[in-house]
């Protein structure tokens, strides 16, 4: 059996000191230039990826302190209990009894949502309806 060359405890210690880290910081901590090595070590630690800053930051689920909406920010980097920005939008719209307007969602998540919402509509994960010259986003399930 090969000895462990890159110890995931190194990342655990980094997160305990800094709370969040970017991929270059994680590579540096492990002493590697290979992103896949970092991702393998992160997967053993229950990591979370930011939905803000194009997913450029990581933290551990044990470090994040989510509010009642499932959001947590650290140094203006936002994370969500639901994961990515796309998954967060689908979860929130699905939970809303009457859907959400884009402006409402943008105010909640603190990042632009127009492009992610359009992507979700194109993929069939959300539907949108014109209402009072604004788009209302809903689940595509006609019953709801």
Summarize the structure in words.
- The mean pLDDT is 89.
- The chain starts with 7 loop residues before the first helix and ends in a 6-residue tail after the last strand.
- It is built from 6 helices and 8 strands; from the N terminus they run αβααββββαβααββ.
- 39% of the residues lie in helices and 20% in strands.
- α4 packs across α6.
- The radius of gyration is 18 Å and the shape is elongated.
- It has 144 residues and is α+β, with helices and mostly antiparallel strands.
- It folds into 2 domains: 8-80; 85-138, Arc Repressor Mutant, subunit A (Orthogonal Bundle).
- It has helices spanning 8-18, 23-30, 35-43, 85-95, 102-109, 114-122, and strands at residues 21-22, 47-49, 57-60, 71-74, 77-80, 100-101, 127-131, 134-138.
- A 3-stranded antiparallel beta sheet has the order 1-3-2. Strands 6-8-7 form a 3-stranded antiparallel beta sheet.
In helices, the fraction of residues equals 25-40%
Large-scale geometry: elongated
- Overall structural domain count: 2
Largest sheet composition = 3 strands, antiparallel
In short:
By secondary structure, the protein is an alpha+beta fold.
Please give a handful of descriptors for the protein shown.
144 residues; alpha+beta; Arc Repressor Mutant, subunit A; 2 domains; three-stranded antiparallel sheet; 8 strands; 39% helix; elongated
């Amino acid at each position: 059996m090969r000895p462990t060359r890159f110890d995931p405890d190194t990342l655990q210690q980094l997160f305990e000191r800094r709370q969040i880290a970017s991929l270059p910081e994680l590579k540096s901590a492990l002493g590697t230039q290979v992103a896949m090595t970092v991702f393998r070590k992160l997967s053993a630690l229950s990591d979370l990826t930011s939905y803000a800053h194009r997913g450029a930051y990581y933290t551990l689920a044990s470090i994040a302190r989510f509010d009642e909406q499932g959001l947590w920010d650290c140094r203006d980097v936002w994370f969500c209990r639901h994961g990515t920005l796309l998954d967060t939008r689908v979860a929130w719209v699905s939970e809303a009894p009457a859907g959400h307007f884009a402006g409402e969602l943008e105010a909640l998540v603190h990042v632009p949502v127009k492009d992610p919402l359009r992507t979700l509509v194109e993929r069939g994960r959300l539907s949108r309806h014109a209402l009072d010259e604004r788009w209302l986003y809903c689940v595509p399930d006609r019953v709801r």
